[in-house]
Structures are given as structure tokens and as C-alpha cells.
Design goal:
The complex is a heterodimer. Chain A is an alpha+beta fold. In chain A, 32% of the residues lie in helices and 15% in strands. The termini of chain A are far apart. The relative contact order of chain A is 0.16. Chain B has 20 helices and 28 strands. In chain B, helix 10 packs parallel to helix 19, helix 15 (514-526) packs parallel to helix 16 (554-581) and helix 16 crosses helix 17 (606-614). Classes of the chains: A alpha+beta, B alpha+beta.
Amino acid sequence: MEVSMTVNGTSYTHDVEPRTLLVTHLRENLRLTGTHVGCDTSSCGACTIIVDGETVKSCTLLAVQCEGAEIKTIEGMAENGKLHPIQESFREKHGLQCGFCTPGMILSSWQLLERNPNPSEDEIRHSLEGNFCRCTGYQNIVTAVQDAATKV
Amino acid sequence: MGDLIGKSVKRVEDNRFIKGEGKYTDDFNMDNQTHAVYVRSPHAHANIKGVDTSKAEALDGVVKVFTGQDIADAGIVGSICGWQVDFKNGDTMKEPGHPIMVADKVRHVGDAVALVIAESKNIARDAAGLVEVNYEVLDAVVNPKEAAQDGAPLVHDDVPNNTIYDWELGNKEETDAAFEKAHHITELSYHNQKLVPNAIEPRAALGHFDSNEDKYTLYTTSQNPHLARLVIGAFVLSIPEHKLRVISPDVGGGFGSKIFVYNDECGVLWAAKQIGRPVKWTADRTEAFFTDCHGRDHVTDAKIALDKEGKIIGLRTKTYASLGAYLSNFSSCVPTYLHGTLMQGLYTTPAIHVDVTAVVTHTVPVDALRGAGRPEATYGIERLVETAAREIGMDPAEFRLKNFIPPFDGVKQPGYQTQVALQYDSGNYEGALKKALKNANYEKLKKDRDKARAEGKLLGIGFSTYIEACGIAPSAVVGSLGARVGLYDAASIRVHPTGKVTIYSGAHSHGQGHETTFSQIVADSFGIGMEDVNVVHGDTESVPFGMGTYGSRSLAVCGSAIMKSVDKVKEKGARIAAHKLECSPDDLEFANGSWTVKGTDKSVGFGDVALTAYVPHSYPENEEPGLDFASFYDPANFVFPFGAHICVVEVDKETGQVKIVRYVTVDDAGNIINPMIVDGQVHGGVAHGIGQALYEGAVYDDSGQLLNGSMLDYCMPRADNFPMFETDTTVTPCPHNPLGVKGIGEAGTIGSTPAVVNAVIDALSDYGVKDLQMPLTPQSVWAAMQS
């Protein structure tokens, strides 16, 4: 099936198998490998991206469901060579170690701050419970989001 | 030294990760690549009566289907065990074979039976579903203690009582005597439950064989690419080292599970040669649950003996340790040399006896997982100590202070010789605990707890004071204990003609921040900037033969190799500088990036010397050009980080839900290069240990099915499970390595598990609850409160 979508400002049209997951399409066909796959049960959040302004786990959608969609992945967060403030904060506050969960964490944090520019610690922790990190104990991720909230 | 060491320098590796530009194994692709999917056993124990691959092979797009019989016909052995532990009677441990795929019998759910290779991953998956395997299902055994009993189903026909070895350490007679004269004895029985590592990046491999060069390349998720090359080349596939390149690019967490050389990756590389095309395999998460080596699974009975003053006079443990269905690379040393040797803890206990029976069971193989043996030991000791203190009515902190080994720096005072074969390097255990008590404001905390109790809230305080042996390891020592490899590390420093520097590191970074920490120590040593240094790791074609990253060893062992190379650069640099300054090297001192003639303002800079080394027109006689040195460092001893953790919990009376209210740590990892990174390691470690205490655990039924083999079913710690951890450090330098460093990667995990459980038991003291089995789920806590 043919599917067209705009990803990070570029239009793409591909012929895909109907069963192709959106995350597979992004990684294999578009070669946007910043979106990661950490599980097969939509539990880990490593594949979180933005579809039409809302974060989704891109393993929960088929590529063909995204006909005409406007998509942003981690590769599209920095604009004109300038990091997004959330990306800056993750670096400043040591909000990552191995980096594998980081793209999903950054995008989930983006969604939170869109909806709630001044979240409490509890609200941050609650809103990130769909993203697993095995390295950081989440502490510096929370700190990074708190820091980003002062900048976004 | 300059001013970078000791500073929280921001990580240089983050730039690529925050932009999604890290390159992990699954991000690589090759021309003409195929995709592989393993067919795995759904049964824990079954005879294979037949495998029919015809339907799978007939599917359009399938390239080839291999079976266990193909592996057997090719005469390939599987991965090996790298550590020999002998039985008490001197017999060598049992080492049942572990073929890449099995032909006759499956021994755990997930055992590989066939390998399907196709033009796409979807086709390979479809075809895997068409492989028909006829199984004759057999009885299984999953509990380590039951496995050792007469009549238990055998995992391997040639391993009687499923027993791989039995082993003991310490002095049995003295320990027996201590218990005979004891004033008080405390006993506990506990299961350090089986844990699933769950690094967020699943394991993956991309194998290629170049027939022109007769050479293999393997991209893989490894913590130690040279170890992978050694095992795959020399033992599994018989490939000469120079014909095998292993590349371990960015790796998304390891926690031990990516130390090991798995059969799956070997199979991919073997298949690539058979079909003459690159083969790519990436585990899905369910597969990771069934194939990544699990951790722990120790069933233990333990006792501690006290005299009438409350001094510990004896400790005894009996452990049944499961190694799973097959022996993974380091599985045999975890319950013994990484567990039994830690039973001294921080205490002056004069008589200790540790007894271990290691068994195979019909479960996923077990090997090192963050802490590896040391969490199991620490859990036992710290639960016993806290329980004993409560039983004799002494404050748990006071009890520890009374029993601690007194401070020693390993220089003026000698190292501490334990009853269980180790010599601790340096320690100030009371210093760590006293600081933790102060940071937690313990006196006020106790009042708060009592007040909360009076108001009907179940608040509890728990302690853990731990020690660990890391910086693994002195090769001769571990060799005498059965290790089949050396455990040194290696690093090269290449100073380029303009004075910029590349470090080639045997250690592999997969979250630890080596690219930053190693750059800090080298930049400081040469008086140059962080931006003038970069770190290369993970490619056997470029980095020296180092043993990789595990056991909190990177800085203590590879960092020391780096410092040896630094010294060599400085020594040669001084000779070149002396030639330029027309003096003797002895007249020079090196500081702030320049060699200066002592007492003068005559100096030459690091960059100048580097350029001269590569453009040696005016040059010392008999001096080789270049400024490029490799070094190997074999540690003189293990290093022994330690610390004190205090946990405060509140238990919900109605539901049994445990909430961690405060978590206070004081860790001592010796000198600290980057406090920010040390803090981050502690956070992650503590979270992992709390995971064991409260959430995690592989659940098997009697038939050997793993009932929670997905991230939906296996409870992983989440962001909202934790408060902000209150971390701090003390600094007791390691006396035997050049940086005075110890290690911090596993400390949090080792310290935290017993602190949490001790706190919950304290919270439930009014209910008479003396013990609980992990994980402390709401259900189990609630049930204990009702009984």
C-alpha cells in the first residue's frame, strides 16, 4: 500500500506492506534510527514520537494509519542547528546514560511541557511512567524536565 | 594535573544521543543483507522427535533454514564457561555442552531449535511460524534447591542431581564452635529471586563474511568486544583472531547481560558464511526475556551468632544457586568467588563458613547481573545484622558501629585480611555510616517514625552498610581460583602531531560516560583541553586487547592502563623537551601543558613536543619518532568500594503498597573524577536494587514456563516509583592504583535491596512480621499483615 507522510518537514511516499508498524517504517524505510524499539508490548516508550502534535508510541500504529500525518521524531527536535531546550536540559542535568531511552524520554517530556508548562515533581514522574529507563533511576531525567520547564 | 579531575564536566557523548544520532547495532545495515529469526522452544524440557522445515523453506523470500542438526553436523560446540570451579572433593565441575541450536532435546523455554533466514524480517517471522517441531514434553525442575534432590528431573543426563559443583569457603570448625558458644543466634531463609536484566536495547548482531579476505565482521551488542572475539574465534567457530573483527558500537545498557558471548550471535556469524550474505538478527523483547542471561536465583539458609555484648562471632550460609539450563561464560564464579568471598561484609566476624551448591534447572541461564554475587551476599548479611540487632533490642546503627572493622587506609595501616580470602584495600566504614546518619537526621527521623506510628501510619527505617569487590581483577589471583582468562585491561594513547590526543580504550562505554571521564584524566594529565581529546572504544580492529566493562572495573583497571600510557608519553616527551631546551630530562618539571627547566622560565609546550616527535629534524639521538604508547594494567588487588544506605518507607495499611519516602546514600568509591557521573551511577544502581526489593522477579510455574516474560507482565521500576535519592560520598582512596579510584557502577544495587526490605520489616514491626520474601508486592505485604 502506498503511504505518504511528512516527517520532520520532509514529505515521503513509500509502498509498504500493510502490516508495517510506523516505527519500522521510520527506521527501515526512512532510515530515521533515532526512534528506538525496546519492547514488543508498547510498554517501554523508546519509540515515542509526535504525530499531528500528540506523542504516540510509534509501535502502536501501522504506517498506513498515518496517511497525510505530520510527524516529528527526535531528529527533528533541533531546529536550524539549535538544540531544543529539552535536549539542552537533558545534557546539562545528566538526564541520560546509555542514550537508548533518551529520544522517547525527550519527546514525552515535550508533550508534558506542552500541556503543563510548570509541572510538579509528581506530575513529571507520573507523566513519564510510560517510558522505561534502566540507567538513571529517573532522577536526573526528572531534574532535566524541571530545568527545561524554566526555559521552554 | 589540571583542574578537570573532580569536576562535573558535562558528558561529551551526549551530543549524539540527545539528537537521536547514537549508532546502535540495529541501526547498521549492509548491502545484500538478510534477516534472521530463531525458532525457539515453547517447552522447558522436551525431546525433539522431529523438525520439519519444508513449509518454511517453500515460502517465497526464504533464503535458508538451519536446524540444530546442521550445527551438530558442522561439529560446532557452543559458547563456553570461562571459570572452572572444582567440587569440594577436587573433581572438576560439570560442563554440559551448550550447542548453538539443539538437535535432540530442549532444556528451557527459548532454547533455539532452528534459524530462519529470509529477505525481510517479516518473511523470516512468517517462515519461523511454519517450522514444525515435534516435541515429547518432559517434567521440568525450576527451583534450585529442589533441583539438587534425588529424583528431580535431570537437565543434562550426565549431571547427576543437576549439581555442577559444590563448594565451600571459610572455616567450618571454628564457625561450628562459634555457634555452640553463641549467646544469641539469628536465622533467615531467603530467595534472592531470579531477575531479568532488561537493558532497554535488545541484543542484536549483524554478521558478514568477506570471501576475498577470508574475514568475518560482527557488529554486536557487547560490553567487551575483545572477549567476544576471543570466545567466538578461539572456541566457538574456530576463526583466527586476525580474521575476525568485532565491533560493538553504541550499546543501550548492559548491566552484565551483554558481557556474555551468546550462541545466538555466534549462529548469525556462522550462517553469514554459509549463505554468503550478511545476516542481521535483533532480539525482540519477549526473546530477550527467554535468552538474555538472568541474574541471582540463590536460595539460602543463613545464620549469625552473637556473644552477650552483641558482637558477631560467627556467620554461616548454605546456598543453592541456579545457573539455569546451561553454563554461561561467568556463571560459575558468581555464586562462589563473587558471593562467598564477600561474606565478611564490613564486620569483624571471626568465623565464617559459606557452602554453595550450584545446580542446573530448566530455566534461562543465569550469570552476572549488576552486582553479580555481591548483592546476594550483601542481602544476606545486612538482613541478618538488622534482624539480629532488633532481636537483642539494639539500635541497628549502633549494632553496626559496634561490629565494624576499624578504619584503615591501606598505607599506614595494612589492608584488612578477611576470613573469606580477600584483603580489603582501604576503608572507613563508620565514617560512611555516621555521615549517612547525619544526612538523614536519624534522631529526628526516629521521632518522626514513632509519631507517625502513633497516628496510625506504618513508617519504617532500614539500613544497609555494604562492601563490594570490584576492579576485577588480578589475573594471577583469579587464575589460581579457576578463571580461564586474564582480567587486566589495556589502553593506548596516541598523541597526534598537533598535540591532540586519541585514547584507545579496552573498556567499553554503554552508559558509564567513559568518553568524558577518560578524556578528563588525560586532558588534565597533559594540561590540554577536553576538546583536544577523544576516546575510541568498541572495535577490535582499533583498540588494544582489553577485557571490557563489567564489575565496576573501567576506571580502576582501564583508567590505570590509561595512566600508564600517560606516564610513558610524559617520559618520552621529557626527553624530547630536554633536547629542545638543551638540558637533562631530570632538570624538567611538567605542569600546565609545558615542560619547564626547574627554577627558570625556559619551557616548551606539549604541542611543540608532539610536533617534534613527528617531525624529528632536531631530535635526541637514538630516540624513535612518534608519541604513541599502549599499556596493559593488571591490578595488584581488587578494589573495595563501600557505603551506607538508609531507607525510609511508608506501608499503606489497607493495600500493603510500599512507598519509599526517603532514600539516603553515602558511598565511598575512592577518588572521584566526575561527581555528576558518580551520582548518576548511584541513582541507577539504587533504582535497580529497589526493583529487586519491591517489583521484579521471574515467575516460573512447575512446568518451567516463565509466566511474566514481557514488559507488560514483569514489573520494571518506573519514574513514579521513586523519591529524589539523597546522595553523598566519603573519599577513602584506593592505595594500589594510580588514580586512587574504586568503582561505582554496582554500588547502588548492592546497597539498596536490603535497606528497603529492612525498612519494610521495621514498618511492620507492630504486626510481628519478622521476614518477607522478595519482591515485596502489595499482595505479599498485605498477606503478611493479615497472618
